[in-house]
């Protein structure tokens, strides 16, 4: 079986779904190949946050924060059933590395980058309010700041974006295992396998959104496209029994990393870690040391809460290869191409759940010169997502 499409997308995580939606909204014919299931890997194992990237201010990534805040606001408008604002608290103790003046300055900049919209405001809580914060330890507590960010069900959001793409005409093949792609005069010939056998699509452009499998996909494309130097970093979360009533908490682990403690489905979600990973991405699992690290952090801040681990999961981030801790690495999305000008292939490295729509627009912009001009169908910045 042979088909013809403007664009083939490999991977149905949030970035594959986003690319498919953007292309279909622009009027293009789209085929999405997914080997397992929509949102079956990293896109169901995140921190469940649609956030402006407050912690990225520490590494000076102002453009990323500005973009994330803009995309968060868009998602609050187009997906109100899937994305909701949650109060976040930052407690400052005598022992914490981040001082109150630093947090106040960071939150002020955060509000400015968010154009001082109401949900970008923050407050310093009075001491009389500290005892109301879910049993937060108050010994040596010096200040508590409250601001707002957003939370989502990452898998449900990804499915909603993919459903939106399909409603605009995109085709989804699951299971659809990508086998190989060969460059042609007008694009790529893409071979894939379904339960019914092998099939082929001739496409003008190709988006590689395979997440941690991204370079494995590139290795099956001819002629060879040099892969980016990347590292897979494992992020583990634990789910504790018992809910939080007052919102989420931005805590500081023993090594200075930020760890979120958040309400999640009448329980409590704690994460994340950053551990270098090698091996088959399908085999990523939480490590005992990671679970213990997260539990120590939780119990340090909530010593009176006797909560047990009910679940745990791990996902993989794609980060640029570099020395030093992953926490301080750049988190901007990298789009690799098969040619410096008029590329027919874009590979999406990294990226954030919050910024999936902006990432899709960047990928399509790189392919615009080779894709045919079609009458547009919708604007993804205003198109409502359904849960």
Number of strands: 19
Fraction in beta strands? 25-35%
The CATH topology of the domain at 2-42 and 155-229 and 331-367 is given as FAD/NAD(P)-binding domain
CATH second-level architecture of the domain at 2-42 and 155-229 and 331-367: 3-Layer(bba) Sandwich
CATH superfamily of the domain at 2-42 and 155-229 and 331-367: FAD/NAD(P)-binding domain
Total helix count? 7
* Proportion of helical residues: 10-25%
Name of the level-1 CATH class of the domain at 2-42 and 155-229 and 331-367: Alpha Beta
Structure description:
With 387 residues, this protein is α/β, with parallel strands linked by helices. Among the domains are: 2-42 and 155-229 and 331-367, 3-Layer(bba) Sandwich (FAD/NAD(P)-binding domain); 230-320, D-Amino Acid Oxidase, subunit A, domain 2 (D-Amino Acid Oxidase, Chain A, domain 2). The chain has helices at 14-25, 62-78, 100-113, 154-167, 214-218, 288-301, 356-367, and strands at 2-10, 30-33, 49-50, 83-93, 123-124, 141-152, 171-173, 177-184, 187-194, 197-208, 221-222, 230-240, 248-252, 258-264, 267-271, 275-277, 309-320, 334-337, 345-349. The strands form 2 sheets. Strands 3, 4, 5, 6, 12, 13, 14, 15, 16 and 17 form a 10-stranded mixed β-sheet that branches. It is elongated, with a radius of gyration of 22 Å.
């Amino acid at each position: 079986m042979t088909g013809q499409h403007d664009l083939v997308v490999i991977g149905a995580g949030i970035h594959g779904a986003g690319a498919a939606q953007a292309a279909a909204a622009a009027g293009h014919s789209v085929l999405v190949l997914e080997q397992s299931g929509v949102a079956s890997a990293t896109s169901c194992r995140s921190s469940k946050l649609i956030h402006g990237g407050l912690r990225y201010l520490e590494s000076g990534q102002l453009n990323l924060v500005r973009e994330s805040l803009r995309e968060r606001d868009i998602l609050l408008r187009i997906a109100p059933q899937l994305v909701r604002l949650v109060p976040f608290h930052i407690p400052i103790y005598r022992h914490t590395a981040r001082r109150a003046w630093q947090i106040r300055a960071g939150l002020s900049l955060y509000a400015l980058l968010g154009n001082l919209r109401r949900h970008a405001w923050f407050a310093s809580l009075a001491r009389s309010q500290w005892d109301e914060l879910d049993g937060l330890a108050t010994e040596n507590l010096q200040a508590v700041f409250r601001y707002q960010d957003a939370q989502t069900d990452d898998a449900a959001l990804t499915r909603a974006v993919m459903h939106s793409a399909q409603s605009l005409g995109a085709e989804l093949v699951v299971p659809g295992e990508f086998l190989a792609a060969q460059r042609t005069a007008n694009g790529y010939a893409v071979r894939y396998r379904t339960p019914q056998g092998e099939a082929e699509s001739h496409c003008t452009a190709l988006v590689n959104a395979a997440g941690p499998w991204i370079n494995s996909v590139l290795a099956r494309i001819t002629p060879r496209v040099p892969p980016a130097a990347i590292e897979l970093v494992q992020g583990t979360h634990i789910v504790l029994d018992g809910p939080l009533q007052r919102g989420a908490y931005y805590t500081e682990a023993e090594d200075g990393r930020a760890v979120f403690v958040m309400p999640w489905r009448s329980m409590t979600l704690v994460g994340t870690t950053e551990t270098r990973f090698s091996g088959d991405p399908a085999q990523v699992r939480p490590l005992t040391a990671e679970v213990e690290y997260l539990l120590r952090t939780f119990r340090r801040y909530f010593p009176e809460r006797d909560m047990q681990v009910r679940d745990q999961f791990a996902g993989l981030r794609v980060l640029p290869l570099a020395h030093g801790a992953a926490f301080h690495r750049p988190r901007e999305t990298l789009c690799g191409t098969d040619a410096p000008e008029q590329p027919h292939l874009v590979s999406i490295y990294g990226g954030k759940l919050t910024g999936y729509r902006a990432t899709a627009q960047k990928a399509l912009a790189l392919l615009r010169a080779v894709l045919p001009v079609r009458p547009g169908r919708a604007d993804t910045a205003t198109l409502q997502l359904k849960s």
